[in-house]
Design a protein that fits this description.
Layout lengths: L1 H13 L42 H5 L5 H30 L7 H40 L6 H15 L5 H30 L5
Helix pairs in contact: 3-4, 4-5, 5-6
């Protein structure tokens, strides 16, 4: 009798609680009586913030690289780009320059020499352009009281091209400046179009 009464009382107490079920994040959104609604699986990632968190408000207000980081970024990235493109071009030239009767060792040596020579040439040229662009952009942003926008990048591109070809005459400097300005504007446009799409899936 005691066992039956205790079991009946425990059943009554358990009836006061809502039914339990294991949590499954892959179930669709559904509302179960007496249970909180579950989040749909496709919205699980959207609830996680991918934006950087800052300790102080001053850090959140200034979201750009320092002058040293800016110069290092442009110099290194353009040097690496030039080395890769130049290495590929030199490799193709080495392959095309193969002669009948050359041994495999001579062919490989010619390809490596051509790839390294053209890769160094392109890498040094683009590295100098990146250094000039980083210095000029940092100076222009400082002169404009920290305004880091499209105008600063375009002015830096114009100045970089003009400085790079200044020794070749005014016409060459003007043409190089125009090309640099257009290249900077195109790079900023691509960045503004691509980076927001990447940030949706990759925390940057």
């Amino acid at each position: 009798m005691e066992n039956s009464s205790s079991s009946s009382s425990s059943n009554q107490n358990n009836s006061n609680y809502p039914p339990r079920r294991p949590y499954n994040p892959y179930n669709p959104y559904e509302v179960v009586p007496n249970l909180p609604p579950y989040l749909p699986s496709e919205n699980l990632y959207s609830t996680i913030s991918t934006q950087p968190e800052y300790l102080f408000h001053e850090e959140a207000a200034v979201q750009r690289r320092t002058w040293g980081e800016n110069i290092q970024y442009y110099t290194g990235s353009l040097y690496l780009t030039g080395a890769i493109l130049g290495g590929a071009k030199g490799t193709m030239e080495g392959i095309m320059a193969a002669e009948r009767g050359d041994t495999t060792k001579i062919k490989v040596n010619r390809i490596l020499n051509a790839g390294g020579h053209v890769g160094r040439k392109y890498g040094n040229s683009l590295g100098v352009l990146g250094f000039l662009f980083g210095v000029l952009e940092t100076g222009i942003i400082y002169a404009r009281d920290g305004k880091d926008d499209l105008s600063s990048s375009v002015l830096a591109g114009l100045s970089t091209g003009a400085f790079y070809k200044a020794a070749s005459g005014p016409r060459s400097a003007a043409l190089a400046g125009a090309i640099g300005g257009l290249a900077a504007a195109g790079a900023v446009a691509v960045k503004q179009a691509v980076v927001p799409a990447i940030k949706r899936y990759v925390p940057i």
